Automatic annotation (TrEMBL):
SMART domains, alphabetized: EAL, GGDEF
Every PAC domain range: 475-527
Official protein name in the record: PAS sensor diguanylate cyclase and phosphodiesterase
Organism listed in the record: Alteromonas naphthalenivorans
Family matches, as PANTHER family: DIGUANYLATE CYCLASE DGCE-RELATED, DIGUANYLATE CYCLASE DGCP
Transmembrane region(s): 12-31, 246-267
Keyword check for Cell membrane: no
EAL domain ranges (all copies): 728-988
Keywords assigned: Membrane, Transmembrane, Transmembrane helix
Domain GGDEF: 584-717
PROSITE patterns hit by this protein: EAL, GGDEF, PAC
Length: 990
């Protein structure tokens, strides 16, 4: 018996060693074969890709050369120039050419074009005048295909491929075209990615190795492609995946032998322990009774196992069904527990002597544990089974696993967000899958290459890391990264420091999100909020903010402007404008464009916009980077010449005004002269705030306009001009007040017939013109020559015109007897009203609702206004004529316009400008002018009215010329409309 045990102790471990050794050696051989198969497959796949890439590259270049020959002109004044232009264009679009060469029909090289990007070349301009034989290429004259040759250049040290053909085999007089390719440079670029430890390869042409990497080892894994065409040559590619430093099969075999020996030795020890088991049985039983695991011993009983022994804890563990289980065999016990499938595993343990371990779910309600960890081992001829209650641990593990899975699903499913973990040194060690949806890089790649992907880090990086080291959560910060597409993306990080028990930083965790769109939107909003969309200059808001910052920075009351000046998006646009303790803040200029409205009215707003864009470009040319330029209104600009004295600014303004005066604006077929009136004021924070500066500069600008336009006027606080400014402001205030509270007064002046009663004056009906007067705050009348230009300048004339129309109709509607004795009531309209569609609509609606016969209403428009905006004038006239009104063309002749315009304007009366009428008695030229205007108007069926009839002699001359009507102090003086209405009404009543 002892001898048998000894043989078993040593024989079985030896058998196990032999079996495991054979198993691992077989596995090693299999892995070695599989490795070779994978290497061959990988090399074959890469070789095919390289072949396709080279064939595509070759096809595109050869096709381009054929296209160049097909497009060769039948006749060109200079074939060399044409060829050079086409060749340079081709080489610029398709890289890879080292040269393109043109030879004439005699085979003499005429020109060699080389690329500008420095590609090495076999052919150079030194070959010009040499025969084609000097290139080493023989070209059959009638060949349709390209001839090619491979040459080695001692100058470049490279192999070159030269291909060529007659440009047209049918017309040899066109010459020959050759294309050179630096084969080694091209292959180096295209196969450069394969250079490295991963692949060995060689690219050959007729025995010449053009490009290679590493040494090909003949171990059965070298792949050689079928010959393929590359720029007219037949190439073959041999490729091999480089052999790793260590063979996986050998490693598996060696390690397997070691593990086999170790397992056999352990098995030998176990066998020896089994023999000695009987000696220590009592100690084992004592230990088993004290164990916290249930220990059950079974012995074979036919095809089953019966219970031999169970420790005390097993009876406690299975206490609900202990009595029932103790009488059953192992198979019946497992069936009762609902785990009959485990019986085969137990049999396998007894057969193979291999321990078995599994977590088992118990569904039997009589047994308290829900999960048991069951281990089965062979104990001699018996089976030992241990069971441990792992219900709580298993539940905790399962809950943790479920929680981790939910967390991972949540984290990896976030859109434009990802979770990260960094070390205490702020090196990424974990990022969630969201990084791939944002940057396009895998988490592992981002962790490895993160420092190379960064484009910009926040300026406060040091403070962020210092706060994290102190355990303080820093504010979110922005980092700019490069995506896989090369785009710059902005990520916002929110760090949370993780500290150990001693308060030291051990990690940083947080969540990041893609804020690229938000940042771009914020920048766009900030830009649009501070810039004029038409010109790109600062707008009124940004200019006011800059001006206030300048005044604040230069104010003597600001304690420390270098450190405590608030800066925002506006300020940082021109940071150089903010400098503290500056003795000379600079000079501000308020610019208003002259004759801008003429362009707008004549050609429309698109022309005005184009003019503003071109003028703003001129302004930019006369300022420096330190200065500030803004568009603050329709045609109003402001310049701040920063830290410059007034004398130097005047010199710059002289140059600016000269540039503006010589500038000519062309739109379609029209030419315009424009100018600029500039108000200038020195910036003094102690005397003016921002609003006062702009107002003073605005007043100075209007003074420049009054002085003749296209000039500048310097504002001085104690200048006599200040009183004039205040006077204009008072008039403007009175004008606004009059529009709001009906502060105007209507006057009238008769238009008298000069040659008897006309058809419009039957029965002595009166014809007069409506005039407007403005009463000042002191009760005196303000001259129309003062308040009307102000109203036009400030865009109020359309409101004034409508007030006149409305109140004239009100007066006439209240006096129907007077209306019956009136032939025509003339009402003047300004140029602003002519171009205002809304005012036209209001006037039309007012006329359609009046009781006054509309044939008694005549509107007067000035000739210069009508000609300036001819289309608007025609539309205005046609609209009101359709409802019954008539029209007069006022101040005719003053604008020196062509009589052609008169044919295009459907008016009833032509009012001859008073400048020609005033001296008609003594000035023969005026006499001739009035005669011509009168005759032409009559020939067109229009009646004439002469203005400024100052005396009887003038009236007599006009009568002799057959002028229809006259208007002037010699015929009637202006009087309030109310007086005229009352007088005529009383006269009719009598």
């Amino acid at each position: 018996m002892r001898s048998r045990s000894t043989h078993r102790i040593y024989g079985l471990p030896l058998v196990l060693f032999v079996f495991l050794s054979l198993l691992f050696i077989s596995a090693g051989v299999y892995l070695d074969k599989e490795d070779k198969r994978v290497r061959v497959s990988k090399a074959q796949s890469v070789a095919e890709q390289v072949k396709i890439s080279l064939e595509v590259f070759s096809t595109e270049r050869i096709q381009a050369v054929h296209n160049l020959m097909r497009n060769w002109p039948t006749f060109a004044p200079n074939q060399v120039d044409w060829f050079n232009a086409q060749a340079m264009s081709l080489m610029g679009m398709q890289r890879g050419y080292s040269s393109l060469t043109f030879a004439d029909q005699n085979g003499v090289i005429q020109w060699v074009a080389t690329p500008s990007h420095g590609m090495k070349t076999r052919l150079s301009n030194e070959l010009i005048g040499q025969p084609l034989a000097s290139v080493g290429l023989t070209i059959p004259a009638l060949a349709e295909s390209l001839a090619s040759t491979l040459v080695h250049s001692s100058a470049t040290g490279h192999y070159h491929i030269v291909v060529g053909r007659s440009i047209s085999p049918q017309e040899l007089n066109h010459g020959y075209l050759l294309a050179g390719f630096d084969a080694q440079t091209i292959l180096g670029v295209m196969l450069g990615e394969l250079e490295g430890p991963q692949f060995n390869f060689a690219l050959r042409d007729s025995g010449h190795t053009l490009f290679s990497n590493g040494e090909l080892v003949n171990d059965g894994t070298v792949i050689t492609t079928e010959p393929f065409s590359f720029i007219g040559r037949q190439f073959s590619l041999s490729m091999q995946t480089e052999v790793g430093r260590y063979s996986a099969g050998v490693l598996v075999a060696v390690i397997g032998l070691f593990m086999s020996a170790l397992a056999s030795w352990i098995f030998h020890k176990q066998m020896k322990g089994a023999v000695r088991l009987s000696i220590s049985q009592k100690r084992y039983l004592t230990a088993s009774e004290a164990s916290l695991d249930a220990l059950v011993i079974y012995r074979p009983a036919g095809n089953d196992y019966e219970l031999v022994e169970a420790n005390r804890y097993s009876r406690l563990l299975f206490r609900g069904a202990c009595a029932e289980l103790s009488t059953k065999t192992l198979k019946a016990q497992l069936t009762l527990l609902g785990k009959a499938d485990l019986f085969d595993s137990v049999v396998a343990v007894a057969t193979n002597n291999t321990p078995f371990e599994e977590y088992v779910a118990i569904k039997e309600s009589k047994i308290a544990p829900e999960w048991l960890k069951v281990q089965v081992v062979k104990a001699g001829d018996n089976i030992a089974l241990t069971a441990r209650d792992v219900t709580e641990r298993f539940k905790a593990q399962r809950a943790l696993k479920n929680s981790e899975e939910r967390y991972r699903r949540l984290v990896d499913g976030m859109h434009r967000h990802f979770v990260y973990t960094k070390t205490a040194e702020h090196k990424f060690i974990y990022v969630s899958a969201g990084i791939e949806t944002i940057l396009g890089f895998t988490p592992d790649y981002f962790i490895e290459k993160e420092s190379r992907l960064v484009r910009k880090i926040p300026d406060e990086t040091f403070n962020i890391r210092m706060k994290s080291g102190q355990g303080v959560k820093p504010d979110p910060y922005l980092v700019h990264y490069t995506s896989c597409e090369g785009k710059e993306l902005v990520l916002e990080f929110s760090d949370t420091p993780i500290l150990n028990e001693s308060g030291a930083l051990i990690a940083v965790e947080g969540i990041a999100k893609d804020v690229t769109k938000e940042q771009a939107l914020q920048e766009e909003v900030a830009y649009q909020a501070n810039h004029d969309q038409l010109t790109g200059l600062l707008n009124r808001y940004a200019f006011d903010k800059q001006l206030r910052d300048i005044l604040e920075a230069n104010s003597a009351d600001t304690p420390d402007k270098n450190t405590d000046v608030k800066r925002d998006n506006v300020t940082t646009i021109y940071p150089s404008l903010i400098s503290a303790n500056t003795t000379n803040p600079g000079v501000m200029c308020f610019i208003d464009m002259d004759r801008f409205k003429l362009v707008n009215d004549s050609c429309g707003h698109p022309a005005g916009d184009k003019l503003l864009q071109e003028v703003s470009t001129i302004f930019r040319q006369h300022i420096s980077d330190k200065d500030l330029l803004a568009r603050i209104g329709g045609d109003e600009f402001c310049i701040i010449y920063h830290e410059q004295p007034l004398d130097k600014v005047k010199i710059k303004l002289d140059k600016l005004l000269k540039a503006i005066s010589t500038y000519r604006f062309m739109y379609e077929d029209k030419l315009f002269f424009v100018g600029a009136s500039i108000g200038v004021i020195e910036i003094n924070p102690q005397e003016h705030n921002a609003a006062e500066l702009i107002k003073a500069a605005d007043n100075a600008c209007y003074k420049a306009k009054h002085l003749g336009r296209n000039r500048y006027f310097v504002y001085h606080a104690h200048d006599a001009q200040l009183n004039m400014d205040n006077s204009e402001n008072d008039v403007l205030h009175t004008l606004h007040k009059a529009l709001q509270f009906d502060g105007f007064e209507l006057y009238s002046q008769a238009i008298m017939p000069l040659n008897g009663i006309t058809e419009d004056d039957t029965n002595g009906l009166e014809h007069y013109e409506i005039l407007i007067r403005l009463t000042g705050s002191d009760g005196t009348l303000i001259s129309p020559g003062l308040f009307i230009p102000l109203a036009e300048r400030h865009g109020l004339m359309n409101k004034v015109d409508y007030w006149v129309v409305d109140n004239t109709l009100k007066t006439l509607e209240a006096n129907p007897l007077h209306v019956d004795n009136v032939a025509k009531v003339a009402i003047n309209l300004s140029g602003i009203t002519l171009g205002d569609e809304i005012t036209l609509l209001k006037i039309t609606q007012r006329l359609q609702g009046t009781t006054v016969p509309l044939e008694k209403i005549c509107f007067e428009i000035t000739e210069t206004t009508a000609v300036t905006n001819l289309s608007a004038a025609k539309h205005f006239i046609s609209t009101l004529r359709e409802i019954g009104c008539s029209f007069a063309l006022d101040d005719f002749g003053a604008g020196m316009s062509s009589f052609t315009y008169l044919k295009n304007l459907d008016v009833d009366y032509v009012k001859i400008d008073g400048s020609f009428v005033r001296n008609i008695v003594h000035d023969p030229i005026d006499h001739a002018t009035v005669t011509a205007i009168n005759n032409i108007a009559h020939s067109m069926g229009k009646q004439t009215v002469a203005e400024f009839v100052v005396d009887t002699a003038t009236a007599n001359v006009l009568k002799a010329l057959q002028v229809d009507y006259g208007q002037g102090f010699a015929l009637d003086k202006p009087k309030p409309l109310a007086h005229r209405v009352q007088w005529l009404t009383k006269l009719v009543s009598v």
